[in-house]
Amino acid sequence: MKQALANAKHASPTPNPTPNPTKHTAQNTPPTQDLPKTNVWNGVYNIQNQTYSKQGIYYIDPNLSGQSGQSGNTLSTYGWLDWFTLKNSFGVNANNGTLIIGNDTESANTKGLIWIGNDKGLVYYNTGNFNAANIYLTSNLKTGNGFSGESDF
Fold it and tell me: Where would I find the Vacuolating cytotoxin putative domain in this sequence (predicted)?
């Protein structure tokens, strides 16, 4: 035993060759992976508050046909107002979900427009609230009306 220990090579504390460090992280799960999808445009169009408490994908996609307030690839909100306050308010609250404004996936959509406001000739305020764990803006967003000034995002 003494001879075996005497003949044994001493191990270096640094392995040779030196290994590259490996980073271990949790796998990134994209928000659209097998989660249910819900189109929330109708509530925005009608200036309503919507709350969703389940996990899922909540989206506004101007390229889907047959939607309220649609002209080509443009969605615009309904032109009504509260005559007592001259303003409208809407909200989309997807507390445990992902909100995608402009598509039904998180990929870019360069051919669509979502217009919070319209060109119906009314002057009023639209206010809105988007709330979600993840929010993606994947298309063009416009606010205001077509004759008194507007903003594009």
Answer: 124-148
CB-side exposure of 137: number of CA atoms within 13 Å? 9
Q: Pairing state of beta strands 37-39 and 74-76? A: unpaired
Amino acid at 72: G
Residue 134 tokens read as 């993840």
**Residue closest to 94 by CA, chosen among 31, 144, 139, 138:** 31
User: In degrees, to the nearest 5, what angle opens at C-alpha 127 toward C-alphas 124 and 133?
Assistant: 165
Q: Between the CA of residue 146 and those of 25, 80, 124, 149, what are the distances in Å?
A: 48, 15, 12, 7
What digits encode the pLDDT tens for the residues 19-47?
444 333 334 445 546 789 999 998 888 88
User: Which pLDDT band holds residue 77 (cuts at 50, 70, 90)?
Assistant: confident
